[in-house]
Amino acid sequence: MDHSTQMEAARRGVLTKEMAAVAEKERIGTDKLMGLMAEGRAIIPCNRLHSALSPNGLGSMLKTKINVNLGTSRDMTDLEMEFKKVQSAVEMGAEAIMDLSSFGDTRKFRRHLTGNCTAMIGTVPIYDAVVYYNKPLAQITTEEWIDIARMHAEDGVDFMTIHCGINRDTAHKFKKNKRLTNIVSRGGSIIFAWMEMTGKENPFYERFDELLEICRDYDVTLSLGDACRPGCLADATDASQVEELITLGELTKRAWERDVQVMIEGPGHMPLNQIAANMEIEKTLCHGAPFYVLGPIVTDVAPGYDHITSAIGGALAAASGAAFLCYVTPAEHLRLPDVNDVKEGIVAARIAAHAADIAKGVPGAREWDDRMSFARKKLDWEKMFELAIDPEKARRYRAESKPEKEDTCSMCGNFCAVRNMNRILDGEIVSIFDE
Asked: Can you tell me which residues bind Zn(2+) (predicted)?
């Protein structure tokens, strides 16, 4: 093989099988895709050890993809349940699964994913270090932090969230610029606490070049984590968030010098009126690298409905340039999501992603809606179910309220505008109350 990473292949003019597959899915030319990848504006996360992968591309000019967070916690350790969530997520169209396991046999779950799952697999090695080494946080060494990232690469994960944008200098400034909700990133809070307790530099920042070599060896994409993402509207677009983004932009250039693929993680909680500007800031400071956003959640007062608050923000973010949406479930801020929560989160994120693709003019996006509209015009219920984002729910709703006449629904009945317009335009008589 004459290349180490997909980025290096693109820069050398080598068309990989992953590029060919992505170009076909995206309905774009291979030369265009390779050009975007050579510049770092599009990526294909694909660890060469993830043999089950069906590759997908990430970039603002490609279809917006969604990620599903799963994994065990101390209070919820059922691996079989997490496997079921993974299977359901892939069946519902999620392009990526992020394993955030923080308890139990995390490596067993991770290896199962990379051995069997067709979706991209991402992890946060910082979480796993605490579980794997099974000792107090302050006793984990710099070398051990790096070793855990190497282990994840060896296990076949396609992208790793690494919180390397928060260093000793930015941590010092963070303490001087008080926030309402401090640091809400789990990985960010862990590495911040470790630096405070040990007095040492963030290992992933200090030894970034070594991290790049690991990523290059396995073709792991770096997802540069936003330790300082805002956790409430009051903290959005503050000095800590922007300063970390500047650092991530610097690290992005260093990664590209080694042909390592990169995406940038972003907010977080954010008012609607700041989202588009934040997408522009990221594109500028991080040189057009694909942006991966959590939400953004546009109001803080809707626990139980944060799949909706995030879908609102996600649609605007993706329409403004974000490439990758991390789903949020109704359980966000409350508990580990169950299977139904996962489904609700995926549907909301897919709606947001598709709405953005329509706005951006992504090839093929509007065709789906036009096919649905034609089926509605024809009152072709089976075709409508087939085209629905959630066919099961659409079928169930109609079955639960059967209309008197099959070519109507129980909302309008004989008053159905579509039915009556079809008839009158076909030269038939419409007599609503006599039918």
From this structure: 269, 333
E strands in 129-247:
159-162, 221-224
Comparing CA positions, the residue from 196, 194, 124, 199 lying closest to residue 157 is 124
Token digits of residue 104? 């139990």
Tokens of 238: 């503050």
Provide the phi-psi class of 11: left if phi over 0, else alpha when psi is between -120 and 50, else beta. alpha
Please give the average pLDDT of every successive group of 10 residues along the chain, which has 435 residues.
91 97 97 98 98 96 96 74 87 94 85 94 93 93 97 98 96 93 96 98 98 98 97 97 97 98 96 98 97 96 98 98 97 91 96 98 96 96 96 94 86 89 90 71
Per the annotation, binding residues for [4Fe-4S] cluster are 409, 412, 416
Q: Detail the residues annotated as belonging to a binding site for substrate.
A: 69, 98, 127, 163, 185-187, 226-229, 265, 292
Residues annotated within a binding site: 69, 98, 127, 163, 185-187, 226-229, 265, 269, 292, 333, 409, 412, 416
